[in-house]
Amino acid sequence: MIDTHCHLDASRFEPDRDEVLARAWAAGLHGILVPGVGPDNWEPLLAMSRAEPRLQVGLGIHPQLLPDLPPEEDEAHLERLDALLAQGGAIAVGECGLDGPSAAGAPMERQVAVLRRHLALARKHGLPVLMHCFRAHPALIELFKQEPLPEAGVLMHSYGGGVDLARFYIQKGCHFSFAGPVTWAEARKPLDALRVIPPDRLMVETDAPDQAPTPHRGQRSEPGYLPRIIEGMARVLGEPVEVLAQRTTENARRLFREAFPPPSR
């Protein structure tokens, strides 16, 4: 199993990160993708990945971070991102995207401009994109209609939109990852969307430390909870857990060009 989105570098993991990883490997994971969210954590993430091959990283600027970054520095940050991607070590661009609630501090026009540059960098370096979109789908759809998407792919992280939105992103060639909310009692839209995702474009994530699955909801999430999410998805799809676990693993390894080592036998 591969957790395609886990913020392992988050401060909430500082007290026991080694124990969290030990539990993840014991739970059957053999890969974790840690997305970079801002310039300060790019180098530490690359160092983390060099030290442990089962930890792979993406590099990007999260839209929720933009209100804390001076707009006049956007170009410098993106040029540095370009240089780091050129050096290798990252297997994806992101986490990046659009965030409706952040528009008060980072207007959507700025968010779209920064995301456009992320897409260009992904095309330039042949890397897939880890896409965040929260309450901003109209703006993202408009951008996707204008902008060529990277041939390497776009992964809609923690997808929570409905079926109609999913069909648009499917038509654009996107991949989809689902997190803890698919196990929540009131989940509706993500479950309906899950049923229409092409099997070869489906992946799974924890988004830890956020969005913990049932029965851990409200607590800190961690990558070792990934089997719970797969179990929830398997129930919705009417598939054996083992089959879905194998398929989502194969899909992740294919999207990220075999960056994750195969499971040890």
Automatic annotation (TrEMBL):
Keyword Hydrolase: yes
Any one cellular-component term (Gene Ontology): cytosol
GO MF assignments: hydrolase activity, acting on ester bonds; metal ion binding
Binding site for a divalent metal cation 1: 5, 7, 95, 207
Binding site for a divalent metal cation 2: 132, 157
Entry keyword annotation includes Transcription regulation: no
Keywords assigned by UniProt, alphabetized: Hydrolase, Metal-binding
InterPro entries, A to Z: DNase_TatD-rel_CS, Metal_Hydrolase, TatD-like
One protein family per Pfam: TatD_DNase
Protein family per UniProt: Belongs to the metallo-dependent hydrolases superfamily. TatD-type hydrolase family.
Name under which the protein is recorded: Deoxyribonuclease YcfH
